[in-house]
Amino acid sequence: MFNSASGKATILVADDAEMNRELFSEILTAEGYNVVCAEDGNQALRAIDRTVDLALLDVLMPGKTGFDVCQSIKSDPETRFIAVVLVTGLASVDERIRGIKAGADDFLIKPVNIHELLARTRSLLRLKEYTDELDNAETVLFSLALSIEAKDPYTKGHCDRLSFYSEAIGRRLGMPHEQCVALRRAGVVHDIGKIGVPERVLIKTGPLNAEEWVTMMQHPIIGERICSPLKSFRPVLPIIRHHHEKLDGSGYPDGLKGDQIPLTARVLQITDIYDALITDRPYRRALSHDVAVATMRDEAKRGWWDSSLIDELETLVCRQRPVVETINVAHAF
After folding, report:
1. Catalytic positions, please?
2. CA 23-79-119 angle, 5° bins
3. From CA 144, how far away is CA 139, in angstroms rounded?
4. Within a domain: 251
5. What pLDDT digit, counting tens, does each position of 8-22 carry?
6. Domain final residue pick, 84, 106, 133
7. In terms of domains, do 155 and 129 share one?
8. Are 317 and 271 in contact (CB under 8 A)?
């Protein structure tokens, strides 16, 4: 996804040498790219936003170096997918390692060969376009999930809270980064399958009848199917499918027992139950924190939930409760 009105990519050229800026700008403009120039690292950082697709950064610039600018770009969720090429006269292994650590996607050694410049630019912009398409697909899923949440006035903010608490518990448990990211994403999309459930069932104020329950129990399967085309969502799929299972096998859709239920699904499950208990519902008022936890512990004794995760949740909520009211996790993906 290129951001200019003409459909061409926008490239930032940052170099303290005017001659280099003019040369790069002339070459890239002739190829149809939009070029933005910066005289130093600080100016480059001010020019960086999501409209930039690729940055060509001279390593040795006054103020912020190319390494500094690269690291800033890659550490910001809003700009981390911008392709960065470090342009340097330093060909040492140490300098390349430093660039890699800063997050550089490629290197060009001075004096720069024009054909090499264009070849690397085209290659990186193709990868950037694929990344943007993936990012767009994920954004569509998140928007769809939040639109489903918005249909029910009783679930406002539910997805954000689940994302926040689930990821936080995952980190407390020492889960790998990939699983923590999956928990954050699953917090938003876990109920996306409810798009296949009639609205009259979703917002029904009384108990569901047998036929309605059969329909409702399909939503984890539908949600898994919706998200399965995205490879980046593979760790999320087991969470979507199994967050309504119970340890004693009485849950749905697969009747899994105990450790058959993935740990990530059990983590999201606990936060989902807690949030449902402490918010108003058509059939009851919200429970207090203490009553909600006590209710969950009683259900854990029946063999439904993982009591150790209830302990983690209770500790986390007591520490983080003032923070969660101000978060908006859905914008942090």
Report:
1. 194
2. 40
3. 8
4. yes
5. 899 999 999 999 999
6. 133
7. no
8. no
CA separation for the pair 27, 6 (Å, rounded):
18
For 203-253, the pLDDT digits (tens) are: 777 788 888 898 889 999 998 988 887 877 889 999 999 999 999 999 999
212 by Cβ neighbours in 10 Å (0-12 / 13-18 / 19+) ranks as middle
CA atoms of 32 and 65, how far apart (whole Å) = 28
In the listed set 76, 104, 133, which residue is the last one of a domain according to the structure? 133
Distance set, CA 161 to CA 61, 164, 166, 168 (Å): 43, 5, 8, 11
The Cβ of residue 324 has, within 10 Å, a number of other Cβ atoms equal to: 17
One domain, residues 21 and 168: no
Same domain, 121 and 231: no
Phi-psi region of 241 (alpha: psi -120 to 50; beta: other; left: phi over 0): alpha
How many structural domains is the chain composed of?
2
Q: What is the mean pLDDT of residues 121-128?
A: 88
What number is the average pLDDT over the span 180-192? 90
pLDDT of residue 198: 83
Q: Give residue 135's pLDDT.
A: 63
Pairwise CA distance, residues 28 & 252, whole Å: 56
Q: What would the mean pLDDT of 135-146 be, rounded to a whole number?
A: 69
Range of the domain at 227: 151-331
- Distance CA(16)–CA(57), nearest Å, equals 10
**pLDDT of 25 over the 70 cut:** yes
| Amino acid making up residue 198 | P
